[in-house]
Specification:
- It is built from 11 helices and 10 strands.
- Strands 1-2-3-5-7-10 form a 6-stranded mixed sheet, with helices on both faces. A 4-stranded mixed sheet has the order 4-6-8-9.
- A hairpin with a 2-residue loop joins strand 1 and strand 2.
- Helix 2 packs parallel to helix 3.
C-alpha cells in the first residue's frame, strides 16, 4: 500500500490523519519541503491528532513521514529566537515540546513508528516515544544535539536509557553520530528492520495483528510494562496482580476464553 493511496482520506495540513483499516489510525507527518521538521503549527496539529487516538474505535496507531524523512527534528529556522527567552520561560516551552511525546507514551493503545529516511533529533525522540519502531533499510537515526552545544531534551536521554540501557545510551548519544538502520537495529533501537520503502506496510501488518487482540488487555499491558521499567520488582508484581484482577472481571476476558474453546476469533466489545 502506498502513501498516495491513503491521501484522499486525509485531513490536516501538517499531520495527515487516516484510517487505513478498521480500528487503526495512521498519522503522517506532512512537511516534505522541510524534511518533516517540527514547528509550532505542526506540533499543535500533532497534539490534536494524538488526542484523537483516545476515541473508542481506535485500537492501534501508526506514525510515519514520507519516503525521504520520518522527521528531521525541530526546525532550526525557528530556534534562533529561543536564545533570547529567559531560562524559566525556555523550560516552559520545552515542557510543551514534551507533551505530545509523553501522551503518545502514556496512551493506552500500541503506537508504531514507521521510519523511512532520516529520524533525527526530535524526530528520533518521537520514534522513541512509540512502543514499536519499524525501519526501512535506508532509514537513518541520529541525536546530533551535542554537535550544537545541546542535549536531546524531549525524551532522548530518559527514553534511550530505558530502551537500550545506560552504556548503549551513552554510546549512541556521544559517539555514534548518524546510524544506519542496520546499526540502529544492532543497538536495539529498531523492532523490525525491513526493505526500503516497506516500513509503512509492515507497520500496518503489525497494527492489524494488534487490532485483533483484546484492547483492554493491550492497554493494561502497555501501562504496566511502562511502569515496571521505573519501579522495583515487587512493586511491578503488585501492579501485575492489580491489572490481572481488573481484566479477570471483564466481558472481553469471558469472550476470549469462550472463543478459544470454540476455536473461533474473539469478538471484542470493550475498549
Amino acid at each position: 500500500m502506498s502513501l498516495a493511496e491513503l491521501l484522499p482520506a486525509a485531513t490536516g495540513e501538517f499531520v495527515k490523519v487516516m484510517t487505513p483499516a478498521p480500528h487503526v489510525r495512521l498519522l503522517m507527518l506532512n512537511r516534505p519541503d522541510a524534511m518533516n521538521a517540527w514547528h509550532g503549527a505542526m506540533r499543535a496539529e500533532m497534539a490534536s491528532a494524538v488526542r484523537g487516538l483516545s476515541a473508542d474505535d481506535v485500537r492501534v496507531a501508526v506514525i510515519c513521514g514520507n519516503e525521504k524523512a520520518f522527521s528531521a527534528g525541530e526546525d532550526v529556522r525557528g530556534m534562533g529566537g529561543l536564545a533570547d527567552v529567559s531560562t524559566k520561560r525556555f523550560r516552559s516551552i520545552a515542557r510543551e515540546f514534551h507533551d505530545v511525546f509523553d501522551e503518545l507514551e502514556a496512551i493506552e493503545i500500541p503506537v508504531i513508528a514507521a521510519v523511512e529516511g532520516v529520524a533525527a533529533g526530535g524526530g528520533m525522540e518521537l520514534a522513541l516515544s512509540c512502543d514499536f519502531r519499524v525501519a526501512g533499510g535506508r532509514a537513518r537515526f541520529a541525536l546530533p544535539e551535542t554537535n550544537v552545544g545541546l542535549i536531546p531534551g524531549s525524551g532522548g536521554c530518559s527514553r534511550l536509557v530505558r530502551l537500550v540501557g545506560l552504556a548503549k545510551a551513552k554510546q549512541i548519544l556521544m559517539l555514534e553520530g548518524v546510524m544506519s538502520a542496520a546499526r540502529a537495529n544492532e543497538l536495539g533501537l529498531v523492532t523490525r528492520l525491513v526493505e526500503t520503502g516497506s516500513a509503512v506496510d509492515e507497520a500496518l501488518r503489525m497494527a492489524a495483528d494488534l487490532a485483533a487482540k483484546a484492547p483492554l488487555a493491550l492497554g493494561m499491558a502497555k501501562m504496566i510494562l511502562n511502569a515496571c521499567a521505573e519501579v522495583d520488582l515487587e512493586t511491578g508484581r503488585r501492579l501485575e496482580r492489580l491489572g490481572q484482577s481488573v481484566l479477570k472481571k471483564t466481558q472481553d476476558h469471558r469472550e476470549g476464553a469462550t472463543a478459544f474453546l470454540e476455536k473461533r476469533p474473539a469478538r471484542w466489545t470493550e475498549t
